[in-house]
Amino acid sequence: MINRRNFITAAAIGTSALALNACHRAEEKTQSTSANINKAKKVTLKLATSWPAHFPIMGTGVDTFAKRCAQLSGGTLEIKVFAKNILVPAMQVFDATSAAQIDAFHSGVYYWKGKNPSFSIFGGMPLGLTSEEMITWLKFGGGYELWRELYGKFNLYPLIGGTTGPQMGGWFKKEIKSLDDLKGLKMRIPGLGGEVMKKLGVNPILLPAGEIYTALERGTIDATEWVGPALDSMMGFAKAADYYYTGWHEPGSILEITFNKTRWEKLSEEHRAIISAAAEEMTGTMLQEFRYKNAKALQELPSNVQIKTFPKEMMEAAKTALHDVLADESKKSADFKRVLESYQSFATLNKPWDDISTKNFLKIRS
Ligand code: CA
Q: Which fold does the domain 170-249+303-332 belong to in CATH?
């Protein structure tokens, strides 16, 4: 009797389990076609970039980001990417998104220091944090909160939209043997790095990407920085200058993918999650792509190119000059002072661990 009863009970449980499984499968089937997102409600966003169409690594990075948003949303989220100057000029994407003429932009944060000097810090700092450290500060050290608060005043919502990894110090027509060699030198170098160079006697010049090579080749400028071997090779700088210096002024520049805040808040939770995930993916992939392509391009530099490191006295002077630039900016802008304090407090926390982990290990490995 007991055995039979157990058998019946087991059979009953089995049947209901089967029924439950069938139910679950049916539910899964409906979910896999709708994925919680109403297909009738397709959202299209216009995103403008500061790069030429499909510009290597940065431009192709945002192309892939848009593709991933479409895939992950089952086609319900379309992000139309517009290269620079198609919808808005490269340097007006911030204003156009703020005014809701477009929904989003992909650019470099330091371009907007005229809006608020503190924005240059979110883009990275000379002699400062590397890409991985910058991302850590933004995500865990309070950087994102400040960035979003200050961008909020322009009705903007920023996300990290990639990073370059360490950049090179630039191409020079003449070797830099001492601080004196910098006096009166005309160099294309933007941002805080340019301000530091100015204090060292350099005449920093801003030039659109398309004009840099000719200016260097004709001697209108004596030097230029750009990014690293992969992108610099494409610019042909090796044909116009022999000395290629190692980097200090952009150790981990951050790019941004920024949305009009009102538009962002109106998106569904799923679409916001998809965009955030695709932006994280873009950031990781861009850093890896830069590393791989720079490593490869370094091996393929023409034989006239000599890799040099700036003299120690110049780097010491750059540290002092940076200190002065930061002190000046902090006096002029309370926001700059506040963002700098957050940045420096993370840098202080990070240093002892970085020294005994990464720095120490790289020394052992070399
Ligand atoms: Ca650069």
A: D-Maltodextrin-Binding Protein; domain 2 (3.40.190)
**Cα–ligand 1 centroid distance for 15 (angstroms):** 67
Query: Which residues crowd ion ligand 1, with CB under 5 Å?
Result: 167, 250
CATH class of 44-163+253-293: alpha beta
Per-10-residue mean pLDDT, the chain, length 366: 45 45 45 59 95 94 98 97 95 97 95 94 97 98 98 98 98 97 96 95 90 96 98 96 98 98 97 98 98 98 98 98 98 98 98 97 96
Helices (H) and strands (E) in the chain, counts: 14, 11
CA distance 129 to 204: 23
Strand pairing partners for 159? 257
Give the residue carrying structure tokens 């805080």: 192
Sequence ranges of the domains in the chain: 44-163+253-293, 170-249+303-332
The reported pTM is 0.89
Q: How far is the CA of 144 from the centre of ligand 1 (A)?
A: 23
Q: Which residues contact 52 (CB under 8 A, 6 or more apart)?
A: 59, 83, 84
How far, in Å, is the centroid of ligand 1 from the Cα of 168? 8
